Fold these 3 entries.
Entry 1:
Amino acid sequence: MNVRRRHISGIAIAAATTLGLGTLTACSDTASAANTDKFDVVAAFYPLQYLAEQIGGSHVHVTSLTKPGQEPHDLEISAQQTAALGESDAVLYLKNLQPAVDDAVSQSEVKTKIDAASLTTLEKHGNEVGGHAASHDTSKNDELAGLDPHIWLDPVRYAQVAEGVGKAFEKADPKNAADYKTRTAALVKRLDALNTEFKTGLANTRTKVFITTHAAFGYLAERYGLTEEAINGLDPESEPSAKRVKDLEKMAKADGVTTVFYETLVSDKTAKTIAADANLKTDVLDPIEGITKKSRGTDYFSVQQANLKALQTALGTK
């Protein structure tokens, strides 16, 4: 348990005054992670919040800067959240995913700053990733290419991040290091099992190509020998060109694609329009950027298993 006393900083008092709050207290939303008797962790968004909770267990108090149902890419941080960040013991974020978070972290005096992007390898992905479809992907959207932040959708990379987070917790809160080590090992074991489920479940499919609205599944596609063709690039709100849509319709016919996947936090309008034009089905493939009532599961693992089933149905298991 982290029992050291803290003094609320000037920025915390200013934020509390601005919001009409007498004190900053730990709560169930994204407001504050400070002033508890535990190891206080601010996580940038759900996949990192989940890691912190699973690894930290009862020793940690975790809050997320991104509310459930909020699109994390466009997050703006409130004064209260900035104050809470400054009063926390650790922040867990993914550099270059959320510019507002990067700015807040760089200006914060929080002692332990854990960048998930530094704990595994990132690659450049555009709107097509993996497999043979690259040979007939005629889109040249170089502006969509960049370091893909969606590492948590690959169980192997997510396990690497978990191991790094565990070590950071051990160092920052040494009296609970043994528990962090044990819980990290248990989480990595579950992620290894999930990796095996995906590998086995997607080994023999009728097609290896799938279409998504948002290029979030590049690492997953590469891991399991699939090809992701995204309508949009890494930005889920971007609009595809008419040429890109035509190319996707041609590719779908050539590769036996049956389904256009959309996600829970972004409108399904584009997916349904393309699917209707190409006589395809639509279904959900969840990038797990947040858990809501619309999610097909209650946590990372259950949603990933729902994703696996959706891919098996769309790709056609032999």
Entry 2:
Amino acid sequence: MDGELGDFLRSRRAQIRPEEVGLPSYGRRRVPRLRREEVAQLAGVSVDYYVRLEQGRGPGDPSRTRSGGVSDAVLDALARVLRLDAAEHAYLRAVARPRRHGVRASGASRDTESRVRPGVQLILDGMDRHPAYVLDHRMEVLAWNALADALLGFGGADDLSLPRRLFLDPASRDLYPAWDEVSAQMVAHLRLQAGHHPGDRATGALVAELSEGSAEFRRLWADHLVKPCDHGVKLLRHPVAGLLSLPYETLTVPGAPDRTIVAYVPEPSSDAQERLALLGSWATTRVQ
């Protein structure tokens, strides 16, 4: 068991005040947040067992699954005590009982991982009024339609990794006026995905590269926040279309759970939709 489980438990424990879980907060406390022994007591496990989890030494306790991982009952109890939401609970399960993905863990070829089915590309191309693209679990862009290219410049890009573009390219701060919000969301989503793909060398290399190249990434990664980035609103500033407030939705590609279609879907007749239509006309004219 690597240190990710322990790091995550410690980070979440540090966010909980005793009174939030029904414990008295009066008296002298060396730390203002929950102690290890308090988490263990509330979760119904021994202190030694919980300490082992936080130290990444593995559960030396009968409450283990037959495969050696932490039991569902213990994980559910920890999620309740630490007040985890659904995404954090799923992440806790993933890092406590990592599944090995044979091909990706040993390193699949980039060409194999980058393919999308021709039918998926046809779907993207048919969404001619909506910028749409496909991401893998590392948030690398695998395919896109013409309007997404006009909006985000995928076609002429040397790097199609959204995290690298965001944290290592200074131009990203011009593209995303709410850069701090976007960066926090991206790191939380990347950590969530990393927990579901243990042993993925490419993800590990990406995290190492971003940690070395960006102080903002290092700070956000150290927070151990996990959250899916599956819908919401993005604010973008385009040199031709201007400032755009674009709602987005995501869909998992059938038969490819690690592939996600991201589509920007502004309201009909809205200012954003009209600006996108102008952008599409400009892009078509430029190509001609």
Entry 3:
Amino acid sequence: MSVTDSPAARLQALFEGHRLTPTQRRIAHSMVRRAADVPFLSSVELAELAGVSQPSVTRFAVALGFDGYPALRRHLREVAPAEPAGGPESYNEYQQAVEAEIENLRHLAQALADPRPVRRAGRLLAASRPLPVLGLRAAASQAYGFAYFAAKVHPDVRLLNEGGTMIEDRIDGSVRAGASALLCFALPRHPREVVDTLAYARGAGLRVVTVADSAFAPVAKHSDLLLPAAVGTGLAFDTACAPMLLGRVLLEAMCDDLPDAQARLEEFDAAAAARGLFVD
């Protein structure tokens, strides 16, 4: 199965060009997360998955141009590629989780076929001095990893990975220091505090670049540029290989717009060698 024939890619293409209500975006978000299963779910099961009412699912299908949910489900079943022999149904639960992440990475590779959004994001991040990087709860490690490496090439990176009443103060401080953009990592379950913080950041004049698990995530309406990277949901806790890799891609794009990035890396390597920082 090619990347463009993946269940997630098929659903993304189906939703594109439609103006969806917040409830409908929630349904779309849930469908993308369970893309392989959606053609076989009843409207009641999809409603339970998305946490909405069954009539909301019906109205969602009509908004997409179908007569009702059964017609939408028939469409998805008709375009679903046949599962190859020895496919995921023969894997144990751990293998299925790995295969799902591989599929997420394939979908990310397809999205990156158009590099313009990432390059635009790289320019925004490189130009922001300082650069605040936000990630709370499940996304805190993604924000920390990005900030750790970004600090080696960017002159002023400010990590925001703890919530509370001080976070708006820290955004205000960044704006006063000259920040023009904020990078956010947003993963499910989406904390209300992240949504509120992004709204505050935009109100303070920052351009918001967000890496989220779906283009229909709750943070979308508060983002100037949203870059989706799906998470795996097959284990007790979500896996986030694609968002992590997209963060590294953003680092690369940012370095391309920092003329002294290579010199800073060489300077760090020389200092690390002099200090015996790493074991060969």
